[in-house]
């Protein structure tokens, strides 16, 4: 009985916390408590000591992300709303494009970017099944997966080192009468040769998709003007998975300057519908019930008219709320990544007889995602990696290595159908067998970078 009374008293006490307060005042009090909660339970970070594990990536956040998250939760709109609109606007401004669409992952961003090119609205430039897309074999699978699943054919270029750039001489070899687009990632933040690739696409009337998931904040000088990567091709994509340049847990974005592509992207993201009204809004165009579409009856509700075979790939407003706080930190994140990369490379100078160290692509200023190391002849990559992992340095391969040698290609390799190799993948195989990378994320201190460099030297 006493326990029951105590519980009732506690409930009344909690209710009285907000008695005689407006909703806005109550919200401000809750967010103030969130800030205090962060400072007590999240802000305390253990100072790095030599011997501690050095991850390749980690989230960097403070009370602002947590406050935004709770603010959105208190609103309880859940699906895309005001934070989504704010994030799309601010990311578009940062990238330097007109249109941005938030999605639920970087993989979804690549899916939407490619599928937009299959729209009937693009007429003779649309990508059809059997058409070819030029790409590279050393990368993350979801740069390639969308067109394989659709029925288009990837044509693989080799990837060079130390800039791990595309072999431009292969572009012409890759070209055929079926080629419709080029879709390549800025690997580990280092831009590919955008000037050459862009000119190639313009000459042959090909679409260019920049997979910018590794490179948010990277810059490229195009015709004397510095531009953010992702803004130079027809479509750019980003990922906000925790290891990337900024995070909202899961999430991604698709951006473009082309209004028609933007319309298609939004349709593909939002079930394929023809209507552009945001969630919770109706009849912004004023013609919801007075038009005729396809063979539907005149006046059929425009909210249920579908111009594409689309998906539901929207992110939640709570994710966007975290992204809005992260976006304000992004310039500092980029600066720190560049500083960490520079420091690590300086520490490893003098090892060129054993290792190939990464080089910046000409005309670019990368926002580095990672530091790629390629072992020269006589140095066993597996032994180096094992040593680093045993001593607390987290390592990663260059994603799929040679994608065409992955198990998911077994059936296509056996039949010899479904993909094409432009020339050879000799250097891609070299990367697969001899390359790995370590992190340079903003949370790395100078001590962590120095320890990592020392361990790399010892591993040799």
Helical proportion? Answer: 25-40%
**So, the CATH homologous superfamily of the largest domain?**
Type I PLP-dependent aspartate aminotransferase-like (Major domain)
- As for the number of domains, it is 2
CATH class of the largest domain: Alpha Beta
What is the N-to-C order of secondary-structure elements (H for helix, E for strand)?
HHHHEHEHEHEHEEEEEHHEEEHHEHEH
| Beta content | 5-15%
Describe the protein in words.
It is a single chain. With 460 residues, the chain is α/β, with parallel strands linked by helices. It has two domains: 74-278 and 288-318, Aspartate Aminotransferase, domain 2 (3-Layer(aba) Sandwich); 330-459, Aspartate Aminotransferase, domain 1, CATH 3.90.1150.10. It contains 14 helices and 14 strands. It has helices at residues 2-16, 23-42, 63-75, 82-95, 106-116, 145-150, 169-174, 194-204, 259-269, 317-348, 381-390, 410-415, 426-434, 446-459, and strands spanning 99-103, 132-136, 153-157, 179-185, 207-211, 219-222, 225-228, 235-239, 252-256, 355-356, 364-365, 370-375, 420-421, 435-439. It has an eight-stranded mixed β-sheet, sandwiched between helices. The chain has a three-stranded antiparallel β-sheet with strand order 7-6-11, with no helix packed on it. A hairpin with a 2-residue loop joins strand 6 and strand 7. Helix 3 (63-75) packs antiparallel against helix 10 (317-348) and helix 11 packs across helix 14 (446-459). The mean pLDDT is 94.
